[in-house]
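Example 9 (inverse folding). The structure is encoded as follows.
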């Protein structure tokens, strides 16, 4: 629905670990969201600094107030992989509002 500072948006995650915000009326990227409407989800915190690790979004996010909350697809099988943290991004500018540290990973830090 949008609000006084940000128009209604379509927010979608992709298999190449990006989160896109598109103006629902014009179809153009929201220039205030991330970098020209795009957030790169392959951050060092999520990839754990491992080479060739990606954390794409395989399911739709959910919008709550002015946040979009997303999970990530993580590898199953051999070797260490990316974090399975759930993250919330501010819909106005794309800043990371909070990560929810996956319990299994948090236990390894103790």
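The amino acid assigned to each position is listed next.
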């Amino acid at each position: 629905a949008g609000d006084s500072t940000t128009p209604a948006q379509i927010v979608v995650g992709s298999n190449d670990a990006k989160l896109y915000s598109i103006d629902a009326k014009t179809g153009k990227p929201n220039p205030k969201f991330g970098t020209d409407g795009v957030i790169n989800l392959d951050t060092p915190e999520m990839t754990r600094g491992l080479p060739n690790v990606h954390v794409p979004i395989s399911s739709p996010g959910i919008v709550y107030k002015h946040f979009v909350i997303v999970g990530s697809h993580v590898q199953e099988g051999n070797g260490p992989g990316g974090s399975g943290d759930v993250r919330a991004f501010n819909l106005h500018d794309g800043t990371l509002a909070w990560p929810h540290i996956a319990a299994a990973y948090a236990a390894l830090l103790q």
